């Protein structure tokens, strides 16, 4: 896959007080990338575009180098005890991405260069949590591998967790640039969950991510390097030929992924396609020709947190999806664990 290179990079003054901020500044200067030094408050209005589609496309090529200011971590149940970010947003253009809503009109990328402060915060939360193992999710606000070739931050974080007996890291990715992570002393403390899907879903809705074969190859490399591995199958979609394509997916995974080196149970998380009215509005503006099925009349309402609702498949269809996909998984990975279907 083609690795991301921004067209414009904003540097917040605070970022240049850290070694990684300076390294990135020198790197982009040598590349001849457009560099703007300014405060993050000015970024949104500096991104050009005559309509939402143009602004979105341009924002996805804009990187802000900044520092993490808030050192209080959010709880991330049920996936982990806490979540933290090395970066926010991601250069890919998945049409259904939940960030369409959560990051609304600010879809530009941010990376945080004060890693030492972030690690210090993690240590404080481990101490406060006072449990034998405290778990941390690093992929809630974007894809942590998408900027790895520029920052190296995920590698440093994996190594940091490798040195901690009482903490574990959880990563999710749709990218395949894993080679730099293979020799790291991870000590089995980082679980990679590779986000996978059928060829149809990846090709039509997950633009600028690793393709079907690249993701399986990345999962194969990660598992052979001894990392505990899992898969997020999301969003699961119903379309002509979905059964055959998902069957192919799990068979290919079984052929190529070595589940033994880590001696940890392989996990699967299953999420059916859903959309909210707000997300639909963003998606139609940003991807006017989308083929995403967002016909409310063919869906059922599911109430979520804070009184928000989303459209999911009707009960019977969801049941069929759950049973069919679960059977395919168990046939190919009999010792795995399906953590949930939602
Ligand atoms: S890779 Fe993940 S974070 Fe990035 S656009 Fe796709 S769904 Fe969103």
For the record, the count of structural domains works out to 1
N-to-C span: 30 Å
Low-confidence segments: none
Overall pLDDT metric? 94
Description of the structure:
This protein has 342 residues and is an alpha/beta fold. It has a single domain (67-341), classed as pyruvate-formate lyase- activating enzyme, CATH 3.80.30. It contains twelve helices and 17 strands. It has helices at residues 19-31, 43-46, 52-59, 99-102, 115-129, 148-151, 153-162, 199-205, 212-224, 242-256, 277-286, 315-332; strands spanning 8-11, 34-37, 62-66, 74-76, 80-83, 87-88, 93-94, 109-112, 134-137, 167-173, 190-196, 206-207, 229-236, 267-272, 300-303, 309-312, 337-341. The strands form four sheets. An eight-stranded mixed sheet has the order 4-5-9-10-11-13-14-17. Strands 2-1-3-8-6 form a five-stranded mixed sheet, with helices on one face. Helix 9 packs parallel to helix 10 (242-256) and helix 10 (242-256) packs parallel to helix 12. The model has no long low-confidence stretch (mean pLDDT 94). Residues 90, 92, 94, 97, 99, 142-143, 174, 209 line the site of iron/sulfur cluster (SF4).
